[in-house]
Write a structure and sequence with these properties.
The complex is a heterodimer. Chain A is of the alpha+beta class. Chain A has a domain of 91 residues: Immunoglobulin-like, CATH 2.60.40. Chain A is built from one helix and six strands. In chain A, a hairpin with a 7-residue loop joins strand 3 and strand 4. Chain A is elongated. Chain B is α+β, with helices and mostly antiparallel strands. Chain B has two domains: 50 residues; 255 residues, monomeric porin ompg (Porin, Beta Barrel), CATH 2.40.160. In chain B, the strands form three sheets. A twelve-stranded antiparallel beta barrel of chain B has the order 1-2-3-4-5-10-11-12-14-15-16-17. The chains are: A alpha+beta, B alpha+beta. Chains A and B meet through strand 5 and strand 6 of A and helix 2, strand 1, strand 2, strand 4 and strand 5 of B.
């Protein structure tokens, strides 16, 4: 009977593990820069991202890049962290901070890409009207 | 004919509506799905461009008005509305049909409204005791005939800058680009019977982008026919007075240089600064209707593209 009670408690702990992960404290993620501007000459941006994060309470967090399947870096038990990443950017992607198993996101930041050149050169017609000065 | 026009217009509206719907659907498809982003972003093809381009800039700018007795044109809002289909396009009032789209050039038939008329929209009536002599100069009015050589100054004369109409022009436009930059060649003729003239123009521009900053200088010229210049800048026989002598403007070339700079704050918002200088042809500058031989335009503000 005593063994059965410990088994139930043990199972309860195992079952509760995911719900403990659900309670991952909210975090604030700050990334600079947030925009990559691509023009005709270059097909991509070469940027160094400065990533900073801070949470309400210490926990195990991992920093992820949405284009990669594995985390960039994990912090075992921390309430703040910093990471710099040199990266080539040609498409929008997301930095996100979450649990090590990747099931939850505490914070995320989107890095946008703006393409100035267009395959349709009519879109780059010169402004011609009197009131149109751009 | 009317039925044909209605049918064509109806088709264009249908195409525009479909493309508008497509762009909305496309925008929804662009929204990242957190559960699939990690795999989708890495293999996603380049996003397709939307057919519509809608934007607005708010700030302060001005375009000087070379016409006598007229106000400069303030530019506080610059609205950008354009739609690009496979062949048809609408770009801020210009309507075009693309004839050829090749790797180094795009040639289109374009209908547009001539904008020289805009200078004649902000005029004032004034009483003057001098005569306009072109290039911003004035001379004394001829002595009143009735006075028989009297020493008295002539009485002030009422001067109204004449009215001019908008012209609908049809023409061909070729856009070229490469590593050397971009060029625009245009030839337009009046099809509305307003001035009966034509205009040929060529412009070159090159854009440099460093980080979030882009700088694009432009150089160009426009040759305007005698009919066109004379309609807008000539003083016609029935308009001539002592203060505004008759004048026939001939053909001439306007030269232009400009600079457009943008600093992109986000994907949609940018800070824009532009300046443009146009030197008017001597035939225009010498008109009694012309106070300046140039047009300067500038604008500084924030522009949002949806």
């Amino acid at each position: 009977m005593k063994k059965l009670r410990w088994l139930v408690v043990g199972c309860g702990l195992l079952v509760n593990l995911p719900s403990a992960a659900v309670d991952l404290p909210a975090a604030r993620l700050i990334v600079k820069p947030l925009l990559c501007v691509i023009d005709r000459e270059a097909g991509q941006c070469s940027l160094t991202f400065r990533i900073r994060w801070k949470s309400e309470a210490a926990a195990e967090y991992c920093l992820n890049d949405s284009a990669l399947s594995t985390p960039l870096r994990c912090w075992p038990s921390a309430s703040a962290g910093a990471h710099d990443q040199q990266r080539e950017v040609s498409e929008a992607f997301i930095y996100w901070l979450g649990a090590p198993d990747g099931t939850q996101r505490a914070a995320e930041v989107k890095i946008d890409v703006l393409r100035l050149d267009s395959p349709d050169r009519r879109r780059e017609r010169r402004a011609r009207h009197v009131w149109d000065v751009l | 004919m009317l039925r044909l026009i209605m049918r064509v217009t109806g088709n264009v509206l249908k195409i525009a509506a479909l493309c508008g719907l497509a762009s909305v659907v496309h925008a929804q498809a662009d929204a990242p799905d957190p559960s699939t982003t990690a795999t989708a972003v890495a293999s996603a093809p380049p996003p397709k461009e939307r057919s519509w381009r809608i934007g607005a800039a708010f700030g302060y700018g001005e375009r000087t008005n070379p016409l006598i007795q007229s106000d400069d044109i303030p530019v506080l809002v610059d609205v950008d509305i354009a739609w690009f289909g496979k062949r048809w396009f609408f770009d801020n009032g210009d309507v075009g049909y693309t004839l050829f789209d090749r790797s180094s050039s795009t040639t289109s038939l374009v209908a547009r409204v001539n904008d020289d008329r805009v200078f004649f929209g902000k005029t004032n009536t004034r009483y003057v005791n001098f005569a306009y002599a072109g290039n911003g100069f004035t001379t004394g009015l001829p002595p009143p005939a009735a006075a028989g050589g009297s020493e008295d100054p002539p009485p002030p004369v009422e001067v109204n800058p004449p009215d001019r109409d908008y012209a609908i022009e049809l023409g061909v436009e070729s856009l070229l680009d490469g590593d050397w930059g971009a060029a625009e060649l245009r030839a337009f003729h009046d099809v509305s019977g307003t001035h009966g003239g034509y205009e040929l123009s060529a412009h070159y521009s090159r854009r440099w982008t460093v980080g979030r900053l882009s700088i694009a200088p432009t150089l160009g010229f426009s040759y305007k026919s005698a009919q066109m210049n004379n309609y807008y800048w000539g003083v016609h026989a029935d308009e001539a007075t002592d203060a505004l002598p008759e004048y026939h403007a001939g053909a001439g070339v306007n030269f232009e240089g400009g600079l457009v700079t943008n600093y992109y704050l986000t994907r949609h918002l940018r800070f824009a600064l532009s300046v443009n200088y146009e030197r008017l042809a001597d035939e225009i500058a010498a008109s009694p209707l012309a106070e300046d031989d140039y047009v300067v335009a500038y604008f500084s503000g924030f522009a949002w593209t949806f």
